[in-house]
Amino acid sequence: MKKLTARETVFVGSMLFGMFFGAGNLIFPVSMGQMAGSDMIQAAAGFLITGVGLPLLAVAALGISREESLLELSSRVGKRYGLFFTCALYLTIGPFFAIPRCATVSFESGIQGMVPGVGPTGGLAVFSFLFFAAVLFFSLRPGQILTWIGKVLNPLFLLFLGVLIVSALLSPMGVVREMAPQGNYASDAFLTGLLEGYNTMDALAGLAFGIVIVDVLRGLGVKEPGSIARDTVRAGLLSSILMALIYFFVTVVGAQSRGLTGISENGGEALSRIAVHYFGSAGDIILAVTVTVACLKTAVGLITSCGETFVKIFPKGPSYRVWAVIFCGLSFLIANLGLNAIIAYSQPVLMFLYPLAVTLIVLTLCARFFGADRRVYLWTTVFTAAGAVFDLIRALPDGMSVKVLLSGVTETAGRLLPFSEQGFGWVCPAVFGLAVGCAVRKLQGKTGRDARGI
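Structure tokens predicted for Branched-chain amino acid transport system carrier protein:
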């Protein structure tokens, strides 16, 4: 049985780190640190579960499943569901939220401060147009420049981030224990941090891009599903430890920054203020350039992945070039809503998709205990979705007519569903659905219903 060597493990671990860690991921732990204050350790613990641990399990689940894509894996629930879930997931980590966020994070993490004479709305419009023009150019003409960016600019960004973190630890802007937690962090920092990890979207990305890592392992001679999962976890521990350390220390820096900057509107603004404090205008310029280039690379990768996936899903539809143009245009329009709006509107979607992703991951990892039976997948997913709908509605921005109209329904669900107030109203329905699925399997018989046979 083939096992990865130490060198191969480091290689796969570095690939996993490059896949999951992007400049945009920094805005959430720094913002979380500012809000959590003295309760940042509890918040960080929750964040690391959904921001680091869950993405790793997503890749391992895809390796165990023996499926070739997310569409095949999610089709274990049903073919129509598989199509819906795959499209919804790629659009979420693509042109609806993650790709526009790349442009807005770049703009607010330094670019905005470099052009003080231009209003934020006009400045974002011009910057995002240029940003997505470059994204489209490289998406249609992939070449060595992306490799150069990945091998040179990303390490430079991490180096700058390391210097920034060390500077903050040696000369803190405030005392963390004196910073009172704000908002939901004051009542339950751990669960709030757990939900904050949703914003990284890395668990969704793990399901979407995990096949890349699985193919690498197979190319290295690891063939058995169990071995693939084991080696993925082993290699992933390296990337997970590094990501966890970065997330934790950025959270610390965010909490300390409240001493001088107060609570910023979002993590992009907070990063910019911190960089200026320690390195002056030069720090703002370095942060702006490295974040922009890193986000550019991420956006190109997402456009390419989304375009290629939609070509495969809809073979009689538009070509890859047409999809790339559509996704870039849509991303440009959504980016101009601003970072705060993108985060606000992405949260309800993530509150719905993440529970479905979590149950799919867990069921796949435990499939051997119920024979990968479609009925277990189906009943668990149906009840999970029903519970997640209430979490979606509750997470809608205040004032939306749908939220106001259904406020009575969500209040009733909040009283009936445990953990609903904390954003986890889907957990008990998911467990109930799992029990129903297992009971149906036992009553109707265990043969002829496995997910792979659908």
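Residues 366-454 form one domain.
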